[in-house]
Design brief:
- Residues 10-24 have a biased composition (Polar residues).
- Belongs to the H-rev107 family.
- This protein is of the alpha+beta class.
- It is 34% helix and 24% strand.
- It contains 5 helices and 8 strands, in the order βββββαβαβαβαα.
- An 8-stranded antiparallel sheet has the order 2-1-7-3-4-5-6-8.
- The longest helix has 31 residues, at 145-175.
- The protein starts with 5 loop residues before the first strand and ends with a helix.
Length: 179
């Protein structure tokens, strides 16, 4: 991707991870936050604030790095300071879908985002996650490469398990033949 679409910043050190990170986020930018086991997504509103999904049953502070958020069925749309949500993790500005999807006008993105603050929404890791949420705001269409990869992996494991099951059944039947 080009410099305009991907920039990395480490909030803990306040120094750039690489030469692409010299730019500050702009309103409407997608923010990819690198958690230890997954990536969390937010949308930059401006003045240091982002909008993101957090678990319903957690305070905003506790939800910052909770793995529990991945397994929740409901989420709350919150406006929080980017630096507080990132904490000691790193993030990058990642408008990776701009080549395939046209971003809505920034004023519309921000207006749509502000209308949702404080709302409780359905959450599903594979069908309606934080990346789907922010891409829906930016492009008018929810997209998640992370979910697509997970669905692909699940499909592969399911197919492999089915194949091994069938092979086991065939082996069992051939051993039970009376010849």
């Amino acid at each position: 991707m080009d410099n305009e679409h991907r920039r990395t910043v480490n909030m803990a050190s306040s120094e750039a991870d690489n030469s692409l990170s010299q730019e500050e986020p702009q309103p409407g930018d997608l923010i990819e936050i690198f958690r230890p086991a997954y990536q969390h997504w937010a949308l930059y509103l401006g003045d240091g604030y982002i909008i993101n999904l957090t678990p319903v049953d957690e305070s905003p502070a506790a939800a910052v790095s909770s793995v529990k958020s991945v397994f929740s069925r409901k989420a709350v749309v919150r406006m929080q300071l980017l630096k507080e949500v990132v904490g000691a993790d790193s993030y990058r500005i990642n408008n990776k879908y701009d080549g395939d999807h046209t971003p809505l006008p920034v004023s519309e993105i921000i207006q749509r985002a502000q209308l949702l603050i404080g709302q409780e929404v359905s959450y599903d890791l594979l069908g309606s996650n934080c990346e789907h949420f922010v891409t829906l705001l930016r492009y008018g269409e929810g997209v998640s490469e992370q979910a697509s990869r997970a669905i692909g992996a699940i499909s592969f494991v399911t197919a492999a398990a089915s194949a091994f099951s069938v092979l086991g059944l065939i082996n069992t039947r051939s051993r039970n033949r009376p010849f």
